[in-house]
Amino acid sequence: MREALYGGLDALGANRLLRHLRRDHVAVLMYHGLVPAGSGIRAWTMVDQDGFRCQLSHLRDHCDVVSIAEALAPGRRTGHRRRVVLTFDDGYRSVYELAFPLLREFGMPATVFVTTAFVDTDGMFWYDRIIGALQDTRIDALDAGAFGLGRFPLAARSPADRWDRIQDVLEAVKWRAYDRREAIADWIAAQHPIPDAIRDRFGMLRTRDLREMVASGLVEAGSHTHRHEILTQIDGEAAGETIRMSLQELAAMTGRAVTTLSYPNGDHDPAITACVARHGVAAAFTTRPGDWMPGTDPMRIPRYGVSAFDSEERFRAIVSGLAGLVQA
Fold first, then answer.
1. Which H or E run includes 271?
2. Residue 46 buriedness (CB in 10 A; 0-12 / 13-18 / 19+)
């Protein structure tokens, strides 16, 4: 029903009008990774490469895609179209293998927020181990009672419904302590082994990949902390250390100073934003949807998440800001 609404409003010119009215705002889009067409992986975080190409085509035709540095410096603005910033969280290898060739083809800049402890490793984030383990639709339930989490039904009528069931598991695990999250994810992956083909699609960047992208001038590196800690769950000293380590290691990997960061899971509070600013970060990004407007706190810049389940109609509505109005 909502897709039909997006399509109908687009036909009436709503997206075009909103792009014009919000031409002084910036829409920051939050991606994670890409998968090839027909991969069979259905996860909110993994957008189909063909779909990504269509999205870039829409942006080319209707918006100006700019870097974070350009968005931070209004005096450098050229053109009068709505501006868009592209970001990728976590640091997946698919950004290099699948997104970067398209960014070069379209000549569009982007920032990849990298979790530095995972670079040059075969590791998987705790949530990716759960997602990968539960891709098998024959698994119709998960009993995590041994961890005090209860039983999760997983049977679903569609891939999007299946994702909602997996998301229930992720939300339950997310608020456990770091080591406990890791243990639960390891247990689930041991119960339901992750096929190598799926594991490979969640692979992490290599230093050489990141260095090549940054050297191109199209891609900037930003921090996503060192170990992807949820910063509000750890003490101030640990938060400062994971931020410091990530900024230092990224500078060593790329030969460039790094001054941007995205908060893992989007979580932050005044103490965390102050800590981020003390470490020389000029712009920090949340997961809260909304426009980056004049006067927006540079330590709390909102972003619109783009998922594998977004239709073409919804993507257009995300970019214009219409989706936020419809959902409000």
1. helix 270-278
2. buried
Share of the chain above pLDDT 70, in %: 98
| Terminal-to-terminal C-alpha distance of the chain | 16
| Region class of 36: left (phi > 0), else alpha (psi between -120 and 50), else beta | beta
Alpha carbons within 13 A on the beta-carbon side of 3: 5
Distance between alpha carbon 109 and the CA centroid of its chain, in Å? 16
Distance in angstroms (rounded) separating the CA atoms of residues 260 and 281: 5
Q: How far apart are CA 231 and CA 169, in angstroms?
A: 21
pTM equals 0.96
- Classify strands 110-114 and 46-48 as parallel, antiparallel or unpaired: unpaired
CA angle at 265 for the pair 201 and 327, rounded to the nearest 5°: 100
Sequence-distant contacts of 74-77: CB under 8 A, at least 24 apart = 74/294
